[in-house]
C-alpha cells in the first residue's frame, strides 16, 4: 500500500483501558473529529488526521499493512508482534515512536502461591499459560529454560486452577487478580505502557510533515503532563539553598526586584508540587509562593 496520501490515519482502541486516555492525548494535541454513524471512523476537522477505532490487537497489523499510519497501543501488544515477525525472519514493519506514560503494567511470570520461588530454572518442564507466546518463548530462551507454552486467548489466570498449566505469563498491574487466583508474580519480563507506534521507515509524502507536527505537539503535552509553574520571591542569599530544593526544575528565570536584595524566580517543575514542598521552600526563605497550571508548551 504505497499510495501517496495527504491525510494521516491513527488507529486507537475502540473501547478498553487505552481508549479514553488515547483520545484525551490527541485532543490535547489539538485534534478534533466528526464521528461517523458507526463510530468506527472519526474524520479529522482541525487537522487532516483521522481516527480508526479498532481492537488493540489489530493495531500493529493495520500499521504493517499501511491501512493506518500510526497507532496507540500497549508495548506488550507491539512487542509480541515484533517478536513474532523476528521468529519467522521477517523484519518488523513498525516500531515504537514514543512512550506515552499511561496504561502502565508488567508482563510477568506468576506461579502458585505455594511455590517456594528461587529461580527461572524451576520452570523447566512446566506448562506456562499465556496470551504472549512469542515474548515468553524469547524470554525462556534467554534463560536457557525449556518449558511448554500453552497459548490461551483469555482468562489466563485461572489456567493453573483448571489444571491447564503450572504457571502463567500475563499482564499485571495491581496484582489483585493474581492474588484472587492464588498466584504470585515472581518476575517481570516486560515493563509496558501505551506507546505511539509508527512505521519503521519515515513517510515520503505529506504525512511526514503532519506526523512531525503531531509528534511535536504530543511531546509538548507529555512534557507538561505533571508539570507546574512555580513562582516565588526570596532574599538573594537564600537563593542557592532554594535551588537545591528544586532538582526537578527546568533552568529557572530569576530577576531582581526591590533594588537587588530580593529576587523573583519562576521555574517549570516536573515533579509533584505538594504542600510539603512549598512549606520546605518557605522555611528556606521563599515568600509569595504560587503554583500555576501549565496549559501549553512549545519547545
Ligand atoms: P480489545 O477489545 O481492544 O482487544 P483488550 O481486552 O485486549 O481490548 P484492555 O483490557 O482494554 O484490552 O487492555 C488494553 C491494554 O491496556 C493492554 O494491552 C495493556 O497494554 C494495558 N493494561 C494496563 N493495565 C492492564 C492490566 N491490569 N491488565 C491488562 N492490560 C492492562
Ligand atoms: Mg485486545
TrEMBL record:
It catalyses: 1-(5-phospho-beta-D-ribosyl)-ATP + diphosphate = 5-phospho-alpha-D-ribose 1-diphosphate + ATP. Its cofactor is Mg(2+). Residues 55-215 form the ATP phosphoribosyltransferase catalytic domain. Residues 226-295 form the Histidine biosynthesis HisG C-terminal domain. The keyword Transferase applies. Its EC number is 2.4.2.17. Keywords: Amino-acid biosynthesis, ATP-binding, Cytoplasm, Glycosyltransferase, Histidine biosynthesis, Magnesium, Metal-binding, Nucleotide-binding, Transferase. Pfam families: HisG, HisG_C. Its main location: cytoplasm. The lineage of its organism: Bacteria, Pseudomonadati, Pseudomonadota, Gammaproteobacteria, Lysobacterales. Feedback inhibited by histidine. It is an enzyme of class 2 (transferase). It comes from the Bacteria. Catalyzes the condensation of ATP and 5-phosphoribose 1-diphosphate to form N'-(5'-phosphoribosyl)-ATP (PR-ATP). Has a crucial role in the pathway because the rate of histidine biosynthesis seems to be controlled primarily by regulation of HisG enzymatic activity. Transmembrane segments: none annotated. Pathway: Amino-acid biosynthesis; L-histidine biosynthesis; L-histidine from 5-phospho-alpha-D-ribose 1-diphosphate: step 1/9. PANTHER family: ATP PHOSPHORIBOSYLTRANSFERASE, ATP PHOSPHORIBOSYLTRANSFERASE ATP-PRTASE. Belongs to the ATP phosphoribosyltransferase family. Long subfamily. One of its GO terms (molecular function) is ATP phosphoribosyltransferase activity. It is found in: Cytoplasm. This is ATP phosphoribosyltransferase. The keyword Transferase applies.
